[in-house]
TrEMBL record:
GO terms for biological process: regulation of cell division. The lineage of its organism: Bacteria, Bacillati, Actinomycetota, Actinomycetes, Micrococcales. InterPro entries: Fido, Fido-like_dom_sf. It catalyses: L-tyrosyl-[protein] + ATP = O-(5'-adenylyl)-L-tyrosyl-[protein] + diphosphate; L-threonyl-[protein] + ATP = 3-O-(5'-adenylyl)-L-threonyl-[protein] + diphosphate. Transmembrane segments: none annotated. Keywords: ATP-binding, Nucleotide-binding, Nucleotidyltransferase, Transferase. This is protein adenylyltransferase. The keyword ATP-binding applies.
Amino acid sequence: ETARRQRELLAGQVAIPKTYDADHVRAIHRHLFQDVYAWAGEFRSVNISKGAGRGFGDVKTGEVDQLLDDVRKRVAGTDWGRLDRDTFAERAATVFAYLNQAHPFREGNGRTGKVFMEHVAERSRFTLDFGQ
């Protein structure tokens, strides 16, 4: 079901405002997981920690909004249409890293992040391939 909903989002069949902020992230998660989690689209209310070596450590709930504001600023502050391939890859990786670090939901952060990054890539002349 989430795969179908992801295809809907990427095909533009579902209109969500592409504001590249916390509301945008919530809207993606809500659409993807509306039939899976009662809390779809709601940021987690508990701190989480992922094991050492996974790329991020303790993520406090109070840090989520700041990290997502950093994401918004980085997306807004980049002229995506003018970037060459290497610069696009660098900037996109940085945005994705901030979004991943925020880890705003208890579950579904990866799929939500991929859709978000596809939306970012739409502002450029490049596409992303998460199948590689």
